[in-house]
Amino acid sequence: MKSLVPGKAIRPPELSNSVSICPMRTMPLFMALFVMVLLLFPITGTAADDYRPMSAIEVYYHSKNHEQIIRNLSKANDPDSTVEDLLIAGELYYKRRVVDVDLGAGLSFKLNSKTPDKDALRYFERAAKKSQSPGLQLRIGQIYLRTREVIVGSIPTGEEWLTKAANQGHTEAEYQLGMFYQNTGWTRVDHQKTLHWLKRAANKNHTKALFQLGQMYLEGSGVATDEGQARRYYQQAASNGHTLAMRMLGDSYRYGTFTKEDPVAAFDWYTRLAESGDSQAQVDIGLMYAAGEGTARDYSAARKWMTAASQSKNPPMDAFFYLGMLQEQGHGGPQDLSGAVKSYQQAKKKGDLRAYAALGMMHMQGRGVEKDHTKSFELLSEPAKSGIAPAQYGLALLYFSGAGVDKNVTYALDWFEKAGAQGHPDALMALGEIYRVGEEVPGDLVASAKWHQQGAERGHSHSQLIMGIFYENGTGVPKNFTRSYMWFHIAGAYGSEQASRARDRLAKQLTPAQLNEAQQMSTEWLNSHRR
């Protein structure tokens, strides 16, 4: 080892054409080299049975002596070089893709090699001859495959090295080899070999292999489609913390894609994913709490998870919109109109048209913002044209009243019907009332009953009250006291005192059999339409 003479650069033998370090005093030079290693070498320090790149902190604890690193670099080209020497040199070349690195304090590092991958492989392959480490064999195979456009013949050579490692039972190599045979960018697809190597890795609980096998069985890729087998592999991968497997299981149990619908199981997987920090899963369980889906309804928990999602590093726009709804409606906490406006504005910035509609309605009503019908019209127009039902309903109200736009009943009816076709309860109720009152259009009680019936089915309590009246009097529909009682009872359950009084009055006119039937119909409807 050359002595460290101030003012002279250190040039390890046979590396002198590649590496140059600016002169510094002795100890700063040691530190510069050490910093260089920390920044550039994810290495192992010994010829261990299973090679793996080391983290910077491991390098620190391993390299008690900075001079030792310099000796390793110096000896890399000697016939008696150790595996450690060769690994350090290999990592030096492989990790240096940028020619110049400024280490600060006037220090710099320069690599002149025009073929760093080839130079790295030269050292790694020499190390592999001295050590049969499957981890090192895997490393070499990966480099060959990553440099397929640079090194001629790299794909079969990479396959050869991966196979050596896999044949020694290296789990990651087994997985990588399985994926190699599935990737048309590397080789011809060989489903049999893919399945063989992935199963070997999966049998050792390799998370990515488990997930990949789940994909193969779900899609029927190289194997017969088997949803049960896919589910088992996904569950194993998800239990190991594979986030996409958790997502697929949650979605499947929620929507019944490759499992039976099971809201409780869906809620469980979404919760695990949400607790790991997945912001979309936080939105999902927030919605499930709000709907009482797979768990007891809990608006407070819904608001908590929506808040967490909105404050995450990459918040989904859904998080802002649904948080705004909870704040606006006062669910899960105090009503916060200014907070709702801010949340909707965040969602609007992300392009959520539902937020445009929500803000448009708030400007129409002057809730949390200044009442401004012109602004409301501007905000509602684009989402209405894009099919957002609340925006269509809001635009219909503006055209019907002539607020912020020239009054146009024809346009209003058209927008009400567009919203009603999507089941918007307020739009359906509005159409029923327009035809019942008959001021802006000729009265049509049959049409009124049709629209109010749809509004009642969608849970609008006023339409339910009106249908109770219509069935009692035979207005627009055949007279039917049993159905009249049913709708009065349902509207009363939703808070209409007028409907409750009408129900009690009508009950005295029903026979016991009719009353029993009406009560049973009411109970069945309420159970199937729980809010």
Task: Give your account of this protein's structure.
- The protein is an all-alpha fold and 531 residues long.
- It is 65% helix and 2% strand.
- The protein has 27 helices and 3 strands.
- Strands 1-3-2 form a 3-stranded antiparallel beta sheet.
- Helix 4 (83-95) runs antiparallel to helix 5 (116-130), helix 7 (154-167) runs antiparallel to helix 8 and helix 23 (445-457) crosses helix 24.
- The N and C termini lie far apart (80 Å).
Write the layout of secondary structure elements.
Layout: E1 19-21, H1 26-40, H2 56-62, H3 66-75, H4 83-95, E2 100-104, E3 107-111, H5 116-130, H6 134-146, H7 154-167, H8 171-180, H9 191-202, H10 207-219, H11 227-239, H12 243-255, H13 263-275, H14 279-291, H15 299-310, H16 317-329, H17 337-349, H18 353-365, H19 373-385, H20 389-401, H21 409-421, H22 425-437, H23 445-457, H24 461-473, H25 481-493, H26 497-507, H27 512-528
Antiparallel strand pairs: 1-3, 2-3
Helix pairs in contact: 1-3, 3-4, 4-5, 5-6, 6-7, 7-8, 8-9, 9-10, 10-11, 11-12, 12-13, 13-14, 14-15, 15-16, 16-17, 17-18, 18-19, 18-20, 19-20, 20-21, 21-22, 22-23, 23-24, 24-25, 25-26, 25-27
Provide a count of the helices: 27
- The percent range for strand residues is under 5%
Euclidean distance between termini CA atoms: 80 Å
Structural class: mainly alpha
Arrangement of strands in the largest sheet? 1-3-2
The average pLDDT score comes to 84
Spatial shape? elongated
